[in-house]
Amino acid sequence: MLVSPIQRAITEPPIVRRLLIGLTLGFLTLFLFLPLAAVFYEALRKGLGVYFAALVDPDAAAAIRLTLLCAMIAVPLNLVFGIAAAWAIAKFEFHGKSVLITLIDLPFAVSPVIAGLIYVLMFGAQGWLGPWLAAHDIKILFAVPGIVLATVFVTFPFIARELIPLMQEQGIEEEEAALVLGASGWQTFWRITLPNIKWGLLYGVVLCTARAMGEFGAVSVVSGHIRGATNTLPLQVEILYNEYQFAAAFAVASLLTVLALVMLAVKALIEWQAHQTRRAALAAKGETEG
Amino acid sequence: MQFRLKQRSVLPGFNLALGYTLLYMSLIVLIPLSAAFIKTADLTWTEFWAVVTTPRVLASYRLTFGASLIAALINVSAGLVIAWVLVRYSFPGKRLVDAMVDLPFALPTAVAGIALTALYASNGWIGSVLALIGIKVAFTPLGVVVALVFISLPFVIRTVQPVLEDLEAEVEEAAACLGATRWQTFRWIIFPAVRPALLTGFTLAFARCIGEYGSVIFIAGNLPMVSEITPLLIVTKLEQYDYRGATAIAVVMLVISFLLLLLINLLQWWSRQRHAI
User: Is this complex's ipTM strictly greater than 0.90?
Assistant: First the structure.
């Protein structure tokens, strides 16, 4: 291959390149690929029979249902919040905006364990609302509502975080044009804003779902670990592991791992799609200008 | 001049959107978080200080912050190399590797914890090799570092990558034309450009590490005074119904996390200022 002197001048000698690529692959193998392989190896070590038995176990099935339920409540709630927050922050100028953005990030900075703890302090027997809840026979802590709340807390910023920079970048000209042409506010949102943000939105939903299904620390504090009732999939993994049922623990873990891999694939697809859209838009722009 | 909360705009929905945002945020985040601070007010200052400075708690701070610092530093150096390789070089399977970097964000921490334990235990694939040279990883503080390196792996890579992509080749060409060696160009042109991103990535990784619970508890062995992290101590106190103790320690962690969040925002503001010039 012919390399011009200037190209040679702004890249490294082949030996350095190979060394750095080798280092990268070595590090990632040690910390990413081997752990990934270990999950499936350990899960299938005792054979397919044990593997599938662990997945159809009634407790595991109940955990799958609860995990899906949590995600199905937490993700739409945070989706509506994310859109509202991004609309207010990206489309308007107001005082205290940067404070608001920082506050939205708060749950990222809080340890999952503390996220669980604050709901214990709110709804626990000695908590603020505990006596009132007990008097009205409402169970939040060590029951499904508590798990859902903890999940909502830890996944709170994901969708807003994706949408705010995206909508800020897109500006407000298109919406203004639609409004001036007589569209109503909702029409403008559905026909202009939503199509513009769909890939970012989808990506935020994917991230949010992954975290909602995988959350461990916060859920562990508020769940009470009642088998078949308040165990999510990650908690089921812990219980099986602590009972030395390693093959079963890794079987359930492999389910979550497949889910994580699907999320990564969807993410790659969305990025590719967004890239294509951008290129098409640039090409169209070039044609009209040329 | 009249003070107005917001500037005029023809777009509708500001009150609805901001109102809903503030209401939802207060209910889910702000009120519950304030519960932790108000609960701590049950304790006098001396009681609070006594709870958060017992030898066992102090040992857990040392482990949590020490291991987080080491893990974040490992990820700064590895992350810079990995981001560089992913942006500048091509090799077979690069896109797959690039996509897989996000795995620690997508994989539940409990799964990461048991996978790393299986790998680094003395009978695991890596642990058995390390055992030959007398290094024990699983069930020691070293195991905590390994788990934290895993869960904070993507932060530095994902903050440095876009900066490297935006770097213009002309500057490097100019440096080369003026007689700079490749190392000089890196040291004086490229490194200063990525330094703010490295710092942000480091802080993000560090902040994530100090709060981590799920992956660490499996691999740490959780020996009090030796391999017990602070979040685990909070859980232990909760399980003993010591709500005050748990909350006091949580408040210490919260204050540190908030300071780090502030630092991240300052760093981002600082790098924006530099870019603006």
Answer: no
